[in-house]
Amino acid sequence: MKIATWNVNSVRTRLPTITKWLQEARPDVVCMQEIKCQDAQFPYEAFEALGYNIAVHGQKAYNGVAILSKYAIEESTNGLPGGDETDDHARYIEAVISADQGPMRLASIYLPNGNPKDTDKFTYKLNWMHRLRAHAKTLLAFEEKLVLAGDYNVIFRDEDCWDPKVWADDALFAPEVRDEFAALMWEGFTDAWLEKDGRGHEYTFWDYQRGAWQRGHGIHIDHLLLSPQAADALQSVHIAKDARAMDKPSDHVPVVIELDA
After folding, report:
1. Fold adopted by 2-259
2. Sites in the chain below the pLDDT cut of 50
3. CA dihedral 194, 31, 246, 111 (to 10 degrees)
4. Helix (H/G/I), strand (E/B), else coil: 86
């Protein structure tokens, strides 16, 4: 089974690019972030034509997450538990799919950016990460194959960016954020990239500005975290860098894992 996570940076704007990559890479499941549209505006037909079942948690113009699955979606839940009524950001969707290997639970996550650090946005990011860890801990208790995939907006290691000095004051690189990401893994999750590859300076995002892609000025912020049951099935991980060179690319590229039976 191939599972991809991809911040597509507007699913409607980049639809031809996305569908082309899907036709070539043929992932079984895709966790999308930053779809930037409401549920009714999502291009269901284009993805259904490729054989995907779809669960969407959209928002007008901003945020938005979705899960595409070649397997039946048994249930889906919108929104990260533990928030308040004022938090209307579409940043989390969770689904159970009927895979050949048995039911599997996945979440597509678009974690807050948090910049600037000295504002409520940073506090919101840390609080959101606390909520994610609490919910993830409850999911681990099910002892099932679980994948938390998405744009975490976390530069976890120094070697996950092209120059730590450039990112030193950024919320993505903040010690509190990195510590919270580590605490999430300590609950019992395995980072697929660190487990099967782990090389530094292998990026998943290149800004559109200042020729970042051409100059190799990227960061690694897209992650797939696996429960012990999913980690036992992990065979490989791959960053699909070529997607950044496609026509009308997202500033992120897909990260793909393969699980065995």
Report:
1. Deoxyribonuclease I; Chain A (3.60.10)
2. none
3. -70
4. coil
